[in-house]
Design brief:
Blueprint lengths: L1 E4 L4 H10 L8 E5 L6 H5 L3 E4 L7 H6 L4 E4 L8 H15 L3 E7 L10 H14 L3 E6 L4 H4 L2 H7 L2 E3 L11 H13 L7 E4 L7 H12 L5 E3 L2 H10 L4 H15 L9 H6 L6 H9 L1
Parallel strand pairs: 1-2, 1-4, 2-3, 4-5, 5-6, 6-8, 7-9
Helix pairs in contact: 1-8, 4-5, 9-13, 10-11
Length: 283
């Protein structure tokens, strides 16, 4: 049996969709905070079990009978290290045979502040004694696609990446890789650096957006502080604006660029291109 945390999240749902092609539905456990949001998964035969990071005792029931666990990193920045520890401790007690954790590309050397909690989780996992594999996920192309509506509205795509290059892939590509690792043999101890096959600058992103829309959408590069200010002005919460601006600044220093082809090797095909992702977003 395979347990997926954050199962109703964007990545979690895609992982389960990939797993359903490989294993019977009743061997998949969706660990969720709100079972109401997982009714569609239950309807497909997936086991739905309630768990909460703030309730360590809830994880004993969630992990009962499970052999493998995918710990999808929490989205609560600043609280993730403690939340991840709760799950890892429960996995240790439950005798989980493989815990797979979704980390960040080159978490041990990344210039992105986002890497801190990921690296701390990796270290805790290593010291836990639980057999583990780490998926160091690069950027999701969707992270930048989310800014397309604003770019079309204002006639410019803004960021703070400079000439830095981003080797992103579709969230579904990373989900498929997770399903492969969860169902493959001899994965304990492996650390995968996962990124898209192609890379692009945000100027190239804007050029492709211009090509597909028939409009001139230039890329406007801003200093990190100004970019954060623009995000705050657009209504983003302080912590999220800080995260995005810092990530762009890290990308300017090569933090989101990779020539590693482990992702396409795992999924047995090329990763989804930016042009394809933009097409889906626009149509």
């Amino acid at each position: 049996m395979i347990v997926i945390t954050g199962a109703t999240g964007q990545l979690g749902r895609l992982v389960i969709a990939s797993l359903l092609k490989k294993v019977p539905a009743d061997r998949i456990v969706a660990a969720v905070r709100n079972p109401e949001k997982a009714k569609d998964l239950a309807a497909r035969g997936v086991q739905v079990r309630q768990a909460d990071y703030t309730e360590p005792e809830s994880w004993e029931k969630v992990l009962a009978g499970a052999k493998k666990l995918l710990l999808i990193s929490s989205n609560e920045i600043g609280q993730r290290e403690a939340q991840h520890k709760t799950v890892i401790d429960a996995a240790q007690k439950a005798g989980i045979e493989l815990l797979v954790y979704t980390s960040l590309l080159r978490a041990d050397s990344t210039p992105l502040a986002l890497g801190g909690e990921h690296l701390a989780t990796e270290q805790y996992l290593k010291n836990s004694g639980v057999p583990f594999a780490v998926l160091r996920n690069g950027w999701y192309t969707e992270n930048y696609l989310a800014s397309v509506p604003a770019a079309l509205q204002h006639g410019a795509f803004i960021g703070s990446v400079g000439e830095g290059r981003i080797s992103s892939a579709a969230r579904a590509d990373y989900a498929e890789a997770a399903a492969v690792v969860l169902t493959a043999a001899d994965q304990a101890g492996k650390i995968y650096e996962l990124a898209g096959d192609e890379s692009y600058s945000l100027a190239e992103f804007a050029a492709e957006l211009s090509r597909q829309t028939g409009r001139q959408i230039p890329y406007v590069n801003l200093p990190e502080a100004e970019y954060k200010g623009a995000l705050l002005g657009a209504g983003l919460p302080e912590a999220f604006a800080e995260l995005l601006a810092n990530s762009d600044a890290g990308a300017a220093r090569g933090g989101l660029y990779s020539e590693d082809r482990s992702l396409s090797t795992l999924i047995g095909r090329e990763t989804t291109t930016l042009a394809t992702m933009l097409k889906y977003t626009l149509h």
